[in-house]
């Protein structure tokens, strides 16, 4: 629950600790984690972004579990099979209970999927026609056509308790989440902290850490200071300028790994664009989009702004993903070349440039405000006057939400933990308002019938290699069309005090269940 009376809460925790000590129990373990921002939701169907996703996977579980290296395996479903081209049968684990002690049943899966279809996350269920409870531990899921990626999609669908949601209502679910996961919500003081308490009856075994406190600290310097002074045990997104400093401090370790998070620039493709005071939107001309791509020096951004802790994006998904096109590199196709960019602008009839606004965050991605400033400086060289509209993450995602009449040029991040480009392409690039569940995040109104057809074909085969071929062809179209510019993959940078047992996940989810602290 959300609680504003922290004194009562601390008294409860203190009483519990005294009781444990009196009973001779092992001393409880706690962990304090510094995040870059607070969660937005605890309802996993109300929207997604990283801090909220981290909380979701502590409280809830999916049918199919994605491990730290993006391998997919049993979760709440212990097995499944394809009984015909469009019918999947999932066998649920017996004995799993929700946090209130009630049994997890097939009807909860059906309720979750039905509710999902009317939610902001409807794209996750776009390729599910129906879910039916065969008995309490068996669910049949039908797809509209043969669809090889269904198990991967299900790893992102977190199962709700039908009885609980109906009891508290949709609005209150954010403040009263209840799942089958390894932790329960203890307290949420917005913009201050979230406290999670271990679920001792978790079906995979009780967590090693009893209490986890997540503190949203948006200022990187403050986050680093909180770690070094002992207020935190581990921090997410250590500032790149603080890496050497923390490495030099005794008792602390810095851990990095390549991120899945791709920083991208979405261009408005509508005939009239909201922040461009011209009768026709220049970005509908491919030459202008190419000019913008060529005017951006990703190597300088990486070296100067990211301190070398980023990797220029070759494509829209990394090489590990289904749909990656071997040998293709966006920045080799459109290398940094201001003179060539100026000529393209002149050829398109915009030698004198134009003014437009970049919408971006100032506290969500690593050095996001500085990247925005660098983009303004770079595009000024081809006479594009880029006005910066920088805002906190808490305002940003609502501001750019589709449909929106606000944006011409957007900087955001996108990752694909499903390991399959189709889950990105179907929502970001599919023509809007044509097919239910598709194109929901197509903020630039990009439309290409050939691309739509390839996504449809990819979503209509039970064979992964055939699906990969269609998605590679889709990648080739996107690289040619330039509806969006991939900038770079961040490096995930963590710092922890000695004694914290921690291995970063590929998807950047800090999952306390996989962690431990030395006694």
| SS field, number of helical segments | 16
User: Major beta sheet, specifics?
Assistant: 11 strands, mixed
CATH first level of the largest domain: Alpha Beta
Structural class by secondary-structure content: alpha+beta
Radius of gyration: 24 Å
Could you say which overall geometry the principal axes of the C-alpha atoms support? globular
Strand content: 15-25%
Q: Averaged pLDDT, please? A: 92
In CATH terms, the superfamily of the largest domain is Dipeptide-binding Protein, Domain 3
Key descriptive features of the protein:
519 residues; alpha+beta; Dipeptide-binding Protein, domain 1; Dipeptide-binding Protein, domain 3; four-stranded antiparallel beta sheet; 16 helices
Structural features, described:
By secondary structure, the chain is an alpha+beta fold. It has three domains: 26-59 and 181-251 and 498-519, Periplasmic binding protein-like II (D-Maltodextrin-Binding Protein, domain 2), CATH 3.40.190.10; 61-162, Dipeptide-binding Protein, Domain 1 (Dipeptide-binding Protein, domain 1); 259-491, Dipeptide-binding Protein, domain 3 (Roll). Helices cover 29% and strands 23% of the residues. Strands 1, 8, 9, 10, 11, 12, 13, 14, 15, 16 and 17 form an eleven-stranded mixed β-sheet that branches. A hairpin with a 5-residue loop joins β2 (64-66) and β3. It is globular and about 70 Å long.
């Amino acid at each position: 629950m959300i609680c504003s009376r922290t004194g009562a809460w601390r008294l409860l925790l203190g009483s519990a600790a005294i009781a444990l000590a009196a009973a001779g129990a092992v001393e409880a373990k706690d962990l304090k984690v510094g995040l870059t921002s607070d969660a937005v939701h605890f309802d996993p169907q109300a929207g997604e972004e990283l801090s909220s996703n981290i909380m979701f996977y502590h409280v809830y579980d999916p049918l199919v579990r994605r491990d730290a290296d993006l391998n997919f395996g049993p979760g709440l479903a212990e097995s499944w099979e394809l009984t015909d081209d469009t019918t999947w049968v999932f066998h649920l684990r017996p004995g799993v209970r929700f946090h209130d002690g009630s049994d997890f049943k097939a009807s909860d899966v059906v309720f979750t999927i039905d509710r999902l279809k009317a939610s902001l996350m409807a794209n996750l269920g776009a390729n599910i026609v129906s879910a039916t409870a065969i008995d309490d531990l068996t669910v049949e899921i039908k797809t509209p056509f043969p669809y090889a990626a269904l198990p991967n999609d299900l790893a992102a669908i977190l199962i709700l308790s039908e009885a609980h949601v109906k009891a508290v209502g949709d609005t209150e679910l954010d403040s009263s989440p209840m799942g089958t996961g390894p932790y329960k919500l203890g307290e949420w003081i917005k913009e201050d902290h979230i406290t999670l308490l271990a679920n001792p009856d978790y079906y995979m075994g009780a967590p090693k850490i009893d209490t986890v406190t997540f503190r949203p600290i948006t200022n990187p310097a403050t986050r680093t200071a909180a770690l070094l002074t002992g207020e935190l045990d581990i921090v997410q997104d250590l500032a790149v300028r603080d890496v050497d400093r923390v490495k030099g401090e005794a008792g602390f370790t810095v851990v990095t790994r390549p991120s899945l998070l791709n920083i991208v620039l979405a261009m408005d493709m509508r005939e009239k664009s909201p922040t461009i005071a011209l009768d026709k939107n220049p970005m509908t001309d491919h030459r202008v989009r190419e000019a913008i791509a060529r005017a951006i020096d990703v190597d300088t951004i990486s070296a100067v702004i990211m301190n070398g802790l980023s990797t220029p994006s070759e494509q829209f998904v990394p090489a590990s993903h289904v749909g990656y096109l071997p040998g293709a590199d966006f920045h080799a196709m459109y290398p940094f070349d201001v003179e060539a960019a100026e000529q393209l602008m002149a050829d398109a009839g915009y030698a004198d440039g134009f003014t437009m606004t970049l919408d971006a965050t100032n506290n969500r991605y690593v050095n996001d405000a500085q990247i925005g400033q660098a983009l303004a400086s770079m595009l000024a060289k081809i006479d594009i006057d880029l006005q910066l509209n920088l805002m906190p993450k808490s305002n940003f995602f609502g501001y750019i939400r589709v449909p929106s009449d606000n944006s011409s040029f957007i900087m955001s991040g996108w990752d694909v933990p499903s390991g399959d480009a189709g889950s990105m392409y179907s929502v970001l690039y599919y023509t809007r308002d044509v097919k239910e569940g598709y194109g929901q995040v197509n903020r630039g109104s990009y439309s290409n019938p050939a691309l739509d057809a390839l996504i449809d074909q990819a979503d209509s085969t039970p064979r992964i290699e055939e699906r990969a071929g269609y998605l590679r062809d889709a990648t080739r179209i996107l690289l040619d069309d330039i509806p969006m510019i991939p900038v770079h993959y961040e490096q995930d940078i963590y710092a922890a005090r000695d004694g914290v047992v921690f291995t970063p996940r590929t998807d950047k989810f800090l999952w306390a269940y996989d962690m431990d602290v030395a006694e």
